[in-house]
From TrEMBL:
Keywords: Membrane, Transmembrane, Transmembrane helix
UniProt keyword Nucleotide-binding present: no
Transmembrane segments: 21-43, 63-87, 99-122, 152-172, 184-203, 209-231
Organism listed in the record: Geodermatophilus aquaeductus
Pfam families reported in the protein's UniProt record: DUF4386 (PF14329)
Protein's name in the database: DUF4386 domain-containing protein
Keyword Transmembrane: yes
Amino acid sequence: MTQTLPAPAPTGPHAGPMRRTAVVAGVLYLVTFVTSVPTLALYGPLKGDAGFVLGAGDTTGVVWGALLEVALAVACVGTAVVLFPVVRRQSETAALGFLASRVVEAGLILVGVVSVLSVLALRDDVAGTGGADADALVATGSALVAVHDGTFLLGQSLMPVLSALCLGSAVYRAGLVPRVIPVVGLAGAPLLLASDIAVACGVHEQGTALAGLAALPIAAWELAFGIWLVVRGFRPSPVLG
């Protein structure tokens, strides 16, 4: 039986810098994964109780969720900045598309964080002044939560579709990682896009099992890509020179 051995690490004058690039990009991808997964649970008190703005529930998890999302936004931009020179050697269009999608994703995440911090500020004002119009405060808080939901749909759900299409296609053509990894992302992109459209049209809601299943392939592609870059680095490719 013939045993297939793993591809050797890149050699030549660029091997050292490219290995460092792969490790940094991989770590940043893993950071995006670690910082994005817990936020849904941490925002539970905020999303699950309209009276949160009036003082119901604990703020600790919500504060940590906001901090994690700031770290997520920074890591998103970091992945694009680090990988841009590598992807550009394969396709400048794909590199620009990937960079743009990650920057837009980070911007939308930060808009969502601002809406969360605004709810916390309203809550502090209520605690300090006693609040006069509870209905108005609840309506304002609900509107700010809706803003966060919208930024999540566009930023953390739609933009990863564009990122997977741009980065995945370039990585697949260059063979920088095993092709099964970008194939998962490329296959999952239309599935998540369809789910995003369904959420926007009211067919199903964010956070449901159906929406979660639609996001799994993209999550798997990003996680596998990050792990591979950290452990193995880029495969030898003409793109690396």
